[in-house]
Amino acid sequence: MWGSWFGGNSAQRRKDAPKKAILDLRQQLDMLQKRERHLENQMANEDKKARDNVSSNKTAARAALKRKKQHEHSLEQTNGQISMLEQQIYSIESANINQETLAAMKNAGAAMKTIHGKMTMEDVDVTMEQLREQHELTQEIGNAITSMPITEPIDEDELESELNQMEQEKVDETILGGGPVPVGDSIGKMPAVDAGPVRGPKKVVQEDDEEEELRKLQAEMAM
Question: Measured on CA atoms in the order 45, 51, 52, 56, is the torsion positive or negative?
Answer without folding.
Answer: positive
